[in-house]
């Protein structure tokens, strides 16, 4: 179901996390790179960020557990293990070759008007949609069920709204997270040191981003999968059927990507300013001319896994906290797949 309140608030949180991390620490909020770094070259930066993401479960679990994602049953049998590891490996290989996923390329890259990110998104998004359609038509058991987010007695695009109490809780939680994300890092820097400010910025960005994924629906494999359900699964031949489509995640473009772009270009662009805690921005230097077949193949591989499973690195990191056995298998696949990338 369309969740305009929750997804809008979650998108604003994702925007705040990405923008503040950029202007505080000069860093791109690219989860696949951060996760790969945590596995292969752990640092204070990625440790604090993923600690923050893990902590994001706590306030929603305590205050609004009804909005948390419902994960599909995972039996842990050989078939499930192989499928999960394969999905992780495709994401690991794909994001290594294409230098990013939905967070780095879509949330952060499109807002900087990066041509490479535009090509990546233009590759992995339609690939995910086509993969979802083909798998649903040929073998629905392979793809994530959307039963938990789409009722059988109404179209999935119909909006639903939280009650007044839940809305007030979510607005208050969002406001609190944004305030802490903005003001805790400079406070830590003033009271202690610049290094403390940097560490706090990584921690609060992780918590804020995790809350954004959980609240927006990006952390829910079923909700992501329903976003791809624009074609009828009754035949391989494509025909539009929006009855099972949940358009919620389109709001991430409006309330996540667009505000990021406004923040960047309202100051004249990143070449006209500098981050608060470091000397310069760590912006990728590769251009459109550097795109090769590996980049395209990687984006397509990521799209296949995203469309088949509804999972990308950020949501996988959150799911691993709630479902450690699943997380161990997926993360192993992600790591090994990344080793094969160029």
Automatic annotation (TrEMBL):
GO CC aspect terms: plasma membrane
The organism's superkingdom is given as: Eukaryota
Q: Which InterPro entries match?
A: DUF6691, Sulf_transp_TsuA/YedE
> Which Pfam family, any one of them, does this sequence belong to?
DUF6691
What membrane topology does the annotation report for this chain? Multi-pass membrane protein
Give the location in the cell.
Cell inner membrane
What keywords tag this UniProt record? Answer: Cell inner membrane, Cell membrane, Membrane, Transmembrane, Transmembrane helix, Transport
Q: Which residues form the signal peptide?
A: none
Which ranges does the record mark as transmembrane? 205-228, 248-270, 291-309, 321-341
Q: What's the main place this protein lives?
A: membrane
Name of the molecule in the record: YeeE/YedE family integral membrane protein
Q: Which organism is it from?
A: Lineolata rhizophorae
């Amino acid at each position: 179901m369309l969740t305009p309140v929750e997804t809008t608030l979650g998108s604003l949180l994702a925007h705040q996390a990405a923008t503040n991390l950029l202007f505080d620490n000069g860093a791109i909020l690219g989860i696949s790179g951060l996760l790969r770094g945590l596995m292969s070259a752990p640092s204070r930066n990625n440790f604090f960020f993923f600690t923050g993401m893990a902590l994001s479960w706590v306030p929603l679990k305590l205050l609004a557990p009804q909005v948390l994602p419902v994960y599909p049953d995972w039996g842990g049998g050989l078939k499930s293990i192989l499928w999960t590891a394969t999905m992780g490996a495709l994401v690991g290989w794909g994001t290594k070759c294409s230098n990013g996923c939905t967070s780095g390329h879509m949330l952060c890259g499109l807002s900087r008007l990066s041509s490479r990110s535009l090509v990546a998104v233009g590759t992995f998004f339609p690939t995910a949609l086509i993969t979802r359609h083909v798998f649903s038509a040929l073998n629905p058991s392979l793809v994530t069920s959307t039963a938990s987010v789409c009722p059988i007695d109404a179209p999935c695009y119909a909006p639903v709204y939280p009650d007044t109490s839940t809305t007030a809780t979510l607005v208050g939680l969002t406001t609190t997270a944004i305030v802490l994300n903005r003001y805790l890092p400079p406070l830590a820097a003033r009271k202690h040191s610049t290094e403390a400010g940097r560490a706090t910025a990584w921690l609060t960005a992780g918590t804020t981003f995790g809350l954004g994924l959980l609240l927006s629906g990006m952390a829910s494999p079923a909700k992501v999968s329903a976003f791809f359900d624009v074609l009828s699964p009754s035949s391989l031949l494509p025909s539009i059927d929006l009855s099972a489509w949940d358009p919620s995640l389109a709001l991430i473009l409006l309330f996540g990507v667009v505000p990021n772009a406004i923040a960047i270009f309202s100051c004249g662009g990143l070449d006209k300013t500098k981050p608060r805690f470091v000397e310069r921005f760590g912006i990728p230097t590769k251009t459109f001319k550097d795109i090769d077949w590996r980049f395209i193949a990687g984006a397509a591989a990521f799209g296949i896994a995203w469309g088949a499973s509804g999972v990308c690195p950020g949501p996988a990191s959150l799911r691993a906290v709630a479902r450690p056995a699943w997380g161990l298998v997926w993360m192993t696949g992600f790591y090994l797949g990344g080793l094969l990338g160029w």
